[in-house]
Recover the amino acids of this structure.
């Protein structure tokens, strides 16, 4: 299949969703180099509003019955606009079908330019560029990495040619090189697009990190302080948030806490390692390459001081800027026989051949390739499949969040995605709050009024309906939408907090009345939620009672000691024994039960 046929197949799927990149890079059986294909398709789309006029006026599709509208656009694009012309041998039939109309195509191309009052082809190029720009202009967000530098140093060096302005909107509108310090996130600037910062010394040395504003929310909201102890970044690659955490802990102590950074994908973990090294956080960041966070044991002694966890798991990536930004494709009409020049004749039935080429432009199966934020591709061809994908992602995201809630010393968690779907965002938050582990360990939502100033002030909050109508949860959730006046990517983050010194909710397995009191029978025995009755205290031994393991659920372990068979150890009053209490000789057989160790899930 020629480059042009492959490109035509890609373009025929336009309008069926998925970004152009995902449609091209998602195809496994391409013959042409993907980069060449991408450039041809993208450029042809950009030029199509001009080329459509040229093709119709030159009556190309009337004379060349084998050409489809899409193929004609691609070939005429290369013939008139590309430096190297049509990338086919001179004798090739497709090339010949265009070059036969050389004179007419050139003269219609000139007419199309003059109609727009553009004196040269270069000006026509600039016009096409301007017309093809889709969506709002984005500033370049840059985080100044205070492990390596200071904001004032960067102002005097990297950004010395940039004129300070008040707001990000001023940056976007400025015709000069403008810079504004962000009012919400410390050490973050928005600068005018157009400068390639990856070529600067500051970028190479890790002094600046290119990171969207919204992506800076989780580490800032987590706000790890020396009292929080060590920090976990559970899904860390490529390392934007890990290095931001590094900058925060570094700024708060001469002896920074350890950051444990887990990354399941070995290849991405290499990028993470490189980024952490360049950013200068390698001295206090321990990277576990290829480590699945779900397999990390919360009760391992290594993590006993982990007080703060950042969870930024894989998601649908629907908030990422740059997706779906494809210029519109303008297809030339196929003239029907007998029609006036360039105008389809409505009264005449299209010939069989014409119907075939119309069909050919549409015959590619409607498929969207959904590319997750970590590059995983999934074919989606219906709403149902999309829902199934979101459900699968949210199941994984919730599991990860509940796992994080089990770390014994944890007191803060942030959960974030760059997805716009409520299923991956507010719904996960609600399910986590309702979970047994959250209830037994005392996890609560981090309310808006308790958030760090910049996040409290950020105006875009969670979706009330998606938060089940719970105003407090919706306000606590932080959202960002691409394309609005804030000029950031689509994002979601929520925080969870827990007071590790407070008495955990011992509600556990008992039914409670509206006042929160345990419901007891006439004998004073608590009623179990499972419908049975707790063991009669008079039957209990002096030291402990062993509860039936029936209905045992890992998440219900919470703060209670269990014996080797997983049964909760209770005192003579039937009250569960807290893990933090002294060791208990549970079975009365002289075996010690450790308070935290040995209860890994
Ligand atoms: C959204 S990206 C993280 C982006 C990162 N936080 C940043 O700011 O640069 C999600 C990452 O989590 C990794 N991941 C997915 N599941 C994981 C798991 N169970 N344990 C550890 N890493 C996981 C993916 O490989 C991917 O690199």
């Amino acid at each position: 299949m020629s480059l042009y046929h492959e490109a035509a197949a890609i373009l025929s799927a336009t309008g069926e969703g998925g970004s152009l990149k995902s449609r091209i890079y998602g195809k496994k059986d391409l013959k042409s180099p993907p980069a060449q294909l991408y450039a041809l398709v993208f450029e042809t789309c950009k030029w199509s509003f001009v080329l459509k006029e040229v093709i119709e006026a030159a009556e190309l599709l009337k004379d060349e019955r084998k050409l489809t509208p899409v193929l004609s656009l691609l070939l005429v694009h290369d013939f008139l606009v590309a430096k190297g012309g049509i990338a086919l041998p001179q004798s090739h039939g497709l090339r010949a079908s265009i070059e036969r109309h050389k004179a007419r195509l050139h003269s219609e191309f000139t007419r199309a330019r003059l109609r727009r009052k553009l004196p040269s082809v270069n000006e026509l190029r600039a016009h096409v560029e301007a017309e093809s720009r889709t969506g709002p202009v984005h500033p370049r967000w840059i985080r100044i990495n205070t492990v390596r530098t200071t904001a004032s140093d960067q102002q005097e060096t990297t950004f010395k040619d940039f004129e300070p302005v008040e707001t990000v909107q001023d940056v976007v509108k400025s015709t000069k090189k403008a810079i504004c310090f962000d009012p919400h996130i410390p050490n973050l600037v928005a600068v005018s697009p157009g400068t390639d910062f990856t070529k600067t010394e500051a970028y190479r040395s890790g002094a600046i990190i290119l990171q969207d504003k919204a992506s800076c929310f989780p580490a800032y909201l987590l706000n790890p302080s020396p009292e929080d102890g060590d920090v976990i970044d559970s899904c860390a690659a490529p390392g934007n948030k890990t290095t931001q955490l590094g900058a925060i802990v570094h700024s708060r102590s001469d002896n920074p806490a350890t950051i444990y950074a887990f990354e399941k994908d070995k290849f991405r973990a290499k990028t993470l390692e490189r980024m952490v090294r360049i950013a200068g956080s390698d001295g206090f960041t321990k990277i576990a390459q290829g480590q699945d966070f779900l397999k990390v044991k919360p009760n391992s002694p290594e993590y006993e001081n982990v007080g703060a966890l950042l969870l930024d798991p894989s998601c649908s990536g629907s908030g990422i800027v740059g997706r779906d930004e494809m210029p519109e494709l303008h297809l030339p009409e196929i003239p029907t026989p007998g029609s006036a020049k360039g105008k389809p004749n409505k009264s005449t039935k299209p010939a069989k051949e014409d119907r075939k080429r119309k069909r050919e432009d549409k015959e590619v199966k409607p498929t969207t390739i959904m590319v997750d934020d970590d590059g995983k591709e999934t074919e989606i061809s219906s709403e149902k499949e999309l829902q199934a994908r979101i459900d699968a992602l949210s199941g994984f995201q919730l599991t990860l969040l509940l796992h994080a809630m089990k770390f014994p010393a944890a007191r803060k968690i942030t959960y974030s995605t760059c997805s716009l779907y409520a299923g991956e965002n507010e719904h996960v938050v609600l399910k986590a709050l309702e979970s047994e582990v959250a209830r037994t360990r005392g996890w609560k939502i981090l309310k808006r009024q308790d958030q760090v100033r910049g996040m409290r002030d950020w105006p875009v909050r969670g979706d009330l309906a998606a938060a089940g109508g719970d105003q407090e949860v919706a306000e606590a959730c932080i959202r960002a939408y691409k394309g609005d006046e804030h000029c950031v990517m689509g994002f979601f983050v929520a925080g969870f907090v827990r007071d590790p010194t407070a008495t955990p909710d011992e509600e556990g397995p008992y039914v409670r009345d509206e006042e929160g009191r345990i419901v007891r029978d006439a004998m004073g025995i608590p009623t179990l939620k499972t419908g049975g009755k707790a063991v009669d205290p008079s039957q209990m031994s002096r030291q402990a009672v062993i509860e039936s393991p029936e209905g045992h659920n890992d998440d219900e372990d919470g703060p209670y000691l269990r014996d080797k068979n997983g049964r909760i150890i209770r005192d003579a009053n039937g009250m569960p024994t807290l893990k933090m209490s002294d060791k208990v000789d549970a079975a009365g057989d002289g075996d010690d039960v450790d308070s935290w160790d040995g209860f890994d899930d």
